[in-house]
Amino acid sequence: MGAEDLRRFFVLASALILSSCAVAWPPLKPAESKPVPSPVEGEFSVVTQADHPVGDLIPVYVAVANGSDEGRAVHPSQVFALNEYGQRIAPVPPQEAARQAGGAGMLKAAMASAATGGAALGALSAATGALAGLAAGGVAPGAAIGGAIGATQGALWSAPMGQGRAQSEANSQIQALALGETEVRKDFTVSGYVFFPKGSYKDVEMLVVNTESGSTETVTVPWH
């Protein structure tokens, strides 16, 4: 392999490395930075706040407060977005939201895998150094080729592993922040995210179960 062949190999490998760098869901705002309603005596309150779209998803923060004497069971699958025609749009399950987030092209840099980025940059630096030495006559062609190929192979092997870590981070974060199934007792508050397909909505509707009577109650709040 001559110097020109090595240069071509380096250019191709560099493109593969950079295209393989792993990314994950950028951090959602933690619950403490979001509004949480205070329980009002005798009332069951709901507050929602839609985040900016991420890929084809809209994360919506939902917080509930129970000031009544009767508990309410909250089921995230029973939180709906209502479009301009009043049609219910079901939420995207957290695991599916994590999958879509991990694959969205615009989700770059915010939670990029430092390990993968470091491996890629290290490979590029090593290969660049080998090429520079070869051009200056200070490195034997065999050593230059070995250094460039070895470093590049290491980064190409580590890139898929970094992608797996990025997807795992997305799964963990979304599961931790998602609204879960729970019972909200008197004077308790519960909050978390639900995820909807990107679209235009006017209201959020939540169905909850009165744990005393077993009846279903509907709460509708404006989308904002």
Question: Can you count the helices?
Answer: 4
Gyration radius (Cα, Å) is 25 Å
Oligomer: single chain
Beta-strand percentage range:
25-35%
Share of residues in helices: 25-40%
Low-confidence stretches: 20-24, 104-136
Succession of helices and strands: HEEEEHHHEEEE
Distance between the termini: 61 Å
Supply the key terms.
224 residues, 8 strands, 4 helices, three-stranded antiparallel β-sheet, five-stranded antiparallel β-sheet, elongated, single chain
How would you briefly describe this protein structure?
The protein has 224 residues and is an alpha+beta fold. The protein has helices at 3-20, 94-103, 114-136, 141-177; strands at 44-50, 57-66, 72-82, 88-89, 182-184, 188-197, 203-210, 216-222. The strands form 2 sheets. Strands 3, 4, 5, 7 and 8 form a 5-stranded antiparallel beta sheet that branches. Strands 1-2-6 form a 3-stranded antiparallel beta sheet.
Overview of the molecule:
By secondary structure, this protein is of the alpha+beta class. Helix content is 39%, strand content 26%. It has four helices and eight strands, in the order αββββαααββββ. It has helices spanning 3-20, 94-103, 114-136, 141-177; strands at 44-50, 57-66, 72-82, 88-89, 182-184, 188-197, 203-210, 216-222. The strands form two sheets. Strands 3, 4, 5, 7 and 8 form a five-stranded antiparallel sheet that branches. Strands 1-2-6 form a three-stranded antiparallel sheet. A hairpin with a 6-residue loop joins strand 1 (44-50) and strand 2. Helix 3 (114-136) packs antiparallel against helix 4 (141-177). The longest helix has 37 residues, at 141-177. It starts with a helix and ends with a strand. 30% of the residues are buried.
